[in-house]
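Aim 2 progress update. The chain analyzed this quarter is reproduced below.
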Amino acid sequence: MAAGTDSLQARPGAFARVVAGAAPAVRWIGRLRGDRVLPGAALLAAVVLVLVETPLVAAPRLPLPLAFVIVIVHAGAVPMALRIPNVAAPLSLAAALALQWLTADTGSMLWPWSPVLIVTQCLVLGAVASRTTLPVALLHWLIAVVLSAVLAGLLRPASGAETSADVAVFGSISAALIVVALLLLQWRRVRSELVHERRIAAEEAERRLVAEERTRIARELHDVVAHSLSIITVQSSTARFRHQGFSPEAADEFDRIAAQSREALDEMRGLLRVLRGSEEDAARRPQPGLDDVEELVAQAHRAGTSIVLEQPSGPWTVGVGPLTGLTAYRIVQEATSNAIRHAPGADVAVALTRIGDDIAVSVVNTATGEPAVDGRAGHGLVGMTERAAIAGGTVRFGPTEEGGFAVEARLPVFVRSGAPA
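Predicted structure tokens:
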């Protein structure tokens, strides 16, 4: 009993090894395309049928050259049906009826449809069904059954039971093959439509993600610009009152600056209303900056991520522009989210440093035993690059030598003149 139990326990492991060994072949077969395999398979089938069918039909009393010519027409209709089905079907039927007429007096029990004739004609009808519609395929099938039955009744009226049974066998097998061919054709169509719909959905999702990212970047950028325009408007409007001794020309110049600033600010507010939409209330909240990175890292740590933050001590963020601070915050946010999503359980190191007039941002996660994720096509990394370019900086990312992933950004402390806006 123990030995039997051990053998039963060993069978699942052996079965799993067999399945694993057959998996590559299954994947290879799954990658084969029907439009490339079927013509070659049909041609090979035609050659084999010619070699098998010719001696069988010529064996009784049919001259070999005549049998060879008719069999070539009959078997050659198999690959022809994949290209011109409505020509191949009548041609193959004519050849089959000719062979039946020439072999009617042989006294064979398997007449009018011998096994090799059934195989050839069924392959032709199956190919016709895969290339036409259901009514057309049924019409070719019905004509073949009716004409062969009529010919059998005319040539062998005395053996009606045997010939009727033979015709019935042919009709049943060919009808079943037509049904299978039509089901496979329908499956291919549904699968093609499904693949097409999935491709459309993926493209729509990609466009939506890119549009959402660009909209968020534009909204945050214009919030910063609107804030700056408000300051310019206030300063230019109150300049003549805060500073005495302005000439009339200088006072008029400041008034024109204030008017242009107010006009630009009104246009900017209208654009912001369009961009914000239903998120208008959320968009009115202050945008995060470098001072909020510590809380962002703390949230990730409370969520169970092994993450550390390195940044200078003291008021090192003084003088950092709001756009730079927002860009650095979003880069850290996206990079840590990618690390948590694509490398769960990895250690994450966030480093913020100030190098001269630049802010350096670094987010590196360690390997987790799985291949490092190459996120070059990711929308989040695309958004990082666009954000950094808007702020006048750069972003580099890619796998590390240890198998992790690193994101490094260099941003100016304040957006320089001439930076993209």
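The chain has twelve helices and five strands. The CA atoms of residues 299 and 305 lie 9 Å apart. These observations will guide the mutagenesis experiments scheduled for the next reporting period.
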